[in-house]
Amino acid sequence: MTRQFTTLWAIDPFADKRTQLKVAQHLKEWMRQSPNTIEPASVLNPGQLRISVDTPDLREKFKTAAQKAFEKITQATKLPNLGEPSLIYCPEYSQRRSVLTFLDYAKEKKADLIAVGTHARAGVERWLLGSFAEALILQSTIPLLIVNPKTHLPKKIKTVLFPTDLSAASEKGLERLIPDLKRLKAKVILFHKMDYVLPETYSMIYRSDLYETYLKEDEARRHGALEKWEKKLASEGIDVDIVIDEKAEFIPKAITKAAKKYKAQVIALVTQTGPASAAILGSIARQVVRNSDCPIWSWHPPEK
Question: Which one of 167, 174, 280, 296 is least enclosed by Cβ atoms within 10 Å?
């Protein structure tokens, strides 16, 4: 007997209800193409109360208020195959610890996907409050479906944009997503941005014949790598297009523009953890998450 696909819906009972319901709308559309059960869950910590003391009495009142808010959200969604909501309490003030607690629960439930909404905060507000969704991106080895307040609701997922740096981790991530791509019956656009062609370097590079020759040779090498990936996906019955972007533009903006140009309903991002990759994530994936008009499908390979 085939195990049923399970989605864990990460809910913040005290966040803007509209954002939570938008996640639910996306899950409803997702289920039409990929039937699965949905289990709502929330992790609570004393930091959400904005108080410095965590007492048993306050904790119980906090849990009761969260439970009521949680039930209002889940009842308003009218999602099919919706399981009983679960509240998980983390006694530490650390957001990282809350994320790890939630992920331990997701692994225990054998979740195939985690759906989460983000407030798309920026600047001082994000620095002060942080983002559970963005912290989740850094830690989760379970694929994520991330929805921000600007996200448009697709009628059907026909096209998935897969930005890649051609790394081994990106290739591994693409292979991990193949079963889901087949289930969605979606076309994949393998999108690669020439990462050294930035506004600051464009005029210098294209002034030199030597650089122009190098760029042509390098593009051919990269295109060859993408063609191998294309053959792999085609052998799985997945329709694929290859796009290499040479324009002088920063990567996050190039990704969101490509999603609009090629009418992608989802952007699939593979991320990595560690100090260096976290810095890369801060400049690329986080910006895409905050500014994309379509949901983000994120995953990073487990560390060795």
Answer: 167
